[in-house]
Amino acid sequence: MSALHVVGQSVARSDGIGFVTGRSLYSGDQSFPGMLHLKMVRSPVHHARLLGVDLSEAERVPGFVRALTHADVPHNVYTILGLIGVEPEEEFVLAVDRVRYKGEPIVAIVAETEAAALEAVAKVRLELEELPAVFDMEEALRPGAPIVTHWGTNTFMFEGHDCRRVRLGDVEQGFAEADHVIEHVYTTSPIEQAPIETTGCVAVPEANGRYTVYTNTQAIYFSLDNTAIILQVPGNRLRFIGGTVGGGFGGKVDVIVEPLATLAAMKTNRPVRYVYSRQEEMQVSSTRSAWKIRLKDGVMDDGRIVARQVTSYADCGAYSRQTPYAMTKHAANAAGPYAIPNVSIDVYCVYTNRTPTSAMRGFGVTMASFATEVQMDRIAELVGLDPWTVRFRNAYRNGDTKPHRKLVEDATLIETMQAAAALVGHDLPEEYRTLTSAPRTAPAGPEGGR
Amino acid sequence: MAKLRGTGMAAVNYPTGMNLGGDPSQALVHATTSGSFNVVLSATDLGQGLRTVVAQIAAETLGVAYEEIVVDTADTDTGPHDMGTFASRGTHRVGNAVRAAAAEARDLVLQLASEELECSVGDLVLDGAGSVMVAGVPSRSLRIADLASRAQFQYGRTIAGRGAFMKPKSEVDPETGAMDPDSTEAHACTVAEVEVDTETGEVAVLSIRSAYEVGRQMNPALVQGQIVGGAWMGMSHALYETTEPYYPSRDHSPKDFAEYLMPGVHELPVIESVVLEVPAESGPYGAKGVGEMTANSPIPAIVNAIYHACGVRIDTLPVTPEAILRGLDALGTAAGSEGAA
Amino acid sequence: MSSVASVIVTFELSGRAVEVMASPMQTLQSVLRGQLGLTATKEGCRQGGCGSCTILVDGEPMLSCLLPVEDVAGRRVTTLEGITPAEGLDPVQRALLEANGFQCGYCTPGMVMIATALLDHNPSPTREEIGDALVGNVCRCTGYVPIIEAITAAAASAITQEAGR
Fold first, then answer.
1. Do A15 and B172 touch (CB under 8 A)?
2. Of A214-223, A381-390, B87-96, B316-325, where does mean pLDDT reach its minimum?
3. Which of A321, A430, C52, C130 sits at a 20 to 30 Å CA gap from C138?
């Protein structure tokens, strides 16, 4: 390729001046005459039958404009993956007769001021019959556990299986042939994306019968298409404007605020602002799942992993949102960047009565990398090798077969480790200083394809 | 009581893009009468600098200066479809779409130039600074800005391009998991150095040193931003963050930044890195995604460093001082031991 | 509409006199953003936890989300809009640009304000002192390193400029 002129240069960002002067407009900075404020009535309990909603006191709050319940929502189902045919439909935009997590939205209150909206929210009376809740994944999978979903089990089904499966070779055979078998469980707790700007939007009715929504979504067409489905309007009735987001990290991929803000704008014919408070962002917006990852490896004396069995559980919370996709992504990465001939991976998406989980930086992979890389150090210790050696010995090369049967290409794990070793002044043995990711000359095996 | 130091490493890969029902992005590029070019998208910039990167890709492809590009995003009335910014897909998918659109516009420029210069398109070269010329004959050159203006007012021809990139949908075999989930893999190797206080259980991260392989850096300063920000977030995941400190119990969930712990300015480690470039055939100018990977490798590197420092093996994140102290108790290691090598 | 009467508050805002009508205990942040259309002051949490709402009152950095607007009556308030010169950028802003001391930009206004307050009081801060000044400003993107570099550079350039006079 001839010399590049612009690509590869550290040119200044074009949006920097807007940031340091504060001139950049984020969606929550947008303001319009007559703008109303939407605040949400949320479930105060983890799991309950919703028997009734009494708005009488709320309606009397000065500044109250109107309330939206499930009956007002044209297609009251929110399944973000429904656009691409991932079933089933499981989450409501506004709760109908059941709530499944603390914070689940029930009634949207629209008022002249934020203070009036919050006051009216506080005055909505909910009639709830609490149900037993489940928070622990293992408990959720046991017979007799409280059931979170409407189809009767606490797992997401992957085409007839209760988990996403990957199978390559024969792990039991691999364990039988291995010199050692090592098994450990790795667990992680949920975390928040916590961008400094909270999720939010402003929906504005236009003179031509369309609606413009200023939003900080990470996926503008995704949000528009979902909103159109929920509101049962043609997509071109909506115009979504965004592109400048005060941090996302996966926390602004769920389509949460736009449908109701737009519906409120439709019902009131006024601009409506729906912006999450920090408390809502922390406690109600989707998080990264908690994970429990069991890694069982069959290892030879020379450190090669000949069999890996991964059994992973992700706590998707009350509704699965994007998490089934994370199961697939996790399954594609749970063996790590290593050449392992026998691999079995089962990834379960488990429902509990906690905040629904969704995308977060490293979705599905961050926790797999944590587990596999701590396991590698354990393997090193087990067979008496240093951590670098055991990784070089197992590192994948171009042409290797990944557990999901895709061939490895663009592999540079070996070169990257060499560069890191050089950076920290760690001397590698000669054979690893000269090793490359070039395809093996012979299949990886006891003789070692070099 | 003692402060014990240790080092740990981790090596990871990370996929670029996703494949959930296909992964498409589109772009439109058109010349303005002033000779600059507008790149029209529906992609979102989350702060990683996507707007800047696509402008660089467009400028490179068109053969004009970076300052000649205006990026218009995101307005669904004007921008073509884009899947969204996540899964480290932006530079790769949107970049490829922009490159394709800019290439189509560039080809129209070259066509027009070949007509004015009375040569074949194959004789022309772009100087990367806004001019197109006959190769080896700098006197026979034209400014792209002037060509764009003449196209508009003299020839009635558009200088515009359309580009699309899509990773086709790949089904997942329910039995074997056979699938094609991504376009390429980037790689990272991190060495972390920590100091464990055996009296308080606190862990200080002294350094995070990493090598990253990213295909090709579109903008080294922006890659550095992901490396440093990612190192900080990885450290934060490893040692601080949780929405449920007593998971699976939901008690004491943080409500605000005072309760949701993250490292502050006085907790920052030394962060050093080297970047390798091994261009990926599928990426624009060889780029792979980098935005998520940088937060991943520091986590196990820190956990492994803790083990090296004090012998406590941690299986649960975040690593709390309580977990360290309980681990030390279990080892029978009272405060006051000598540090590990 | 609240049942309690609004109050009139007069104060100096970035060099000019302003008079606003506010509900009792309405925050300065709410007045700036909602009534005066000055959105450079951000609202990351409205709980005093992130620093993105930092403004100056009589030159001292304060969190406008926790400050009742009545408390600035008769005082001198400066927002980021007031810090930015009519033409170009001030040294702190320029230094942040050069150091790429931002990514999403949402914490940046607060960072400019706190850095400005720091350098006004302490033109030659140590790394430790810069860190102390920033403890109330949360950034989720950059890892703080380029922000600290920017403030260090801004301090150095101001000293160089001063020396060159």
1. no
2. B87-96
3. A321
Query: Would you call C104 and B47 a contact, using CB atoms and an 8 Å cutoff?
Result: yes
Q: Which amino acid is at A285?
A: S
| Nearest beta carbon to residue A196 from set C1, C79, C140 | C140
Q: How far apart are the first and last CA of chain A?
A: 30
Find, in chain B, the residue whose alpha carbon is nearest to that of A14.
Answer: B52
The residue count of chain A comes to 450
The stretch A48-60 carries a mean pLDDT of 98
Q: Tokens for B329?
A: 């108790």
Tell whether C23 is within 8 A of chain A (Cβ): yes
Of B116, B185, B267, B292, which one is the catalytic site residue? B292
Question: Would residue B118 show up in a list of annotated catalytic residues for this protein?
Answer: no
| Chain C residue numbers touching B266 (CB-CB < 8 A) | 131, 135
Q: Which of C50, C106, C143 sits opposite B229 (nearest CB)?
A: C143
Q: What is the pLDDT of residue B336?
A: 47
Q: Which of A6, A164, A218 sits opposite B66 (nearest CB)?
A: A6
Q: Could you tell me if C112 lies within 8 Å of chain A, comparing CB atoms?
A: yes
Give the CA count within 13 Å in the CB-facing half-sphere of C59: 5
Which of the other chains make 3 or more beta carbon contacts under 8 angstroms with chain A? B, C
For the stretch B212-248, pLDDT in tens is 999 999 999 999 999 999 999 999 999 999 999 999 9
Contact B171, B156 (CB under 8 A): no
Global pTM exceeds 0.90: yes
Closest C-alpha among A372, A394, A450, A386 to residue A421: A386
Q: What percent of chain C has pLDDT over 70?
A: 96
Considering CB atoms only, which of C43, C107, C138 is closest to A28?
C43
CB contact under 8 A, B225 and C50: no
Residue B79 vs residues A347, B17, B96: alpha-carbon distances, Å: 37, 21, 16
Please name the residues in contact with B67: beta carbons below 8 A apart, sequence gap of 6 or more.
none
- Is B229 within 8 Å of C148 when comparing Cβ atoms? no
Tokens of B16: 């670029």
Average model confidence (pLDDT) across chain B: 93
Within A300-341, strands assigned E span 305-317
User: Which ipTM was obtained for this model?
Assistant: 0.96
Q: Work out the average pLDDT over C155-164.
A: 78
Please give the helix or strand (H or E) that residue B310 lies within, else none: helix B298-310
Q: Which long-range contacts (CB under 8 A, 24 or more apart) does A421-427 make?
A: A421/A388, A422/B274, A423/B191, A423/B209, A423/B210, A423/B211, A423/B272, A423/B273, A423/B274, A424/B7, A424/B191, A424/B209, A426/A388, A426/B191
Q: Is A158 in CB contact (< 8 Å) with chain C?
A: no
A61-77 average pLDDT score: 97
For B41-69, how does the pLDDT look when each residue is reduced to its tens digit (9 = 90+)? 999 999 999 999 999 999 999 999 999 99
Is pLDDT above 80 for A387?
A: yes
Number of Cβ within a 10 Å radius of residue A241: 23
Q: Which amino acid is at A95?
A: A
Residue B125 contacts C, CB cutoff 8 Å: no
C21 and chain A: CB distance < 8 Å anywhere?
A: no
Identify whether the C-beta of residue A120 lies closer than 8 Å to the C-beta of residue A111: yes
Closest C-chain CA to A16: C97
Q: What pLDDT score does B18 carry?
A: 82
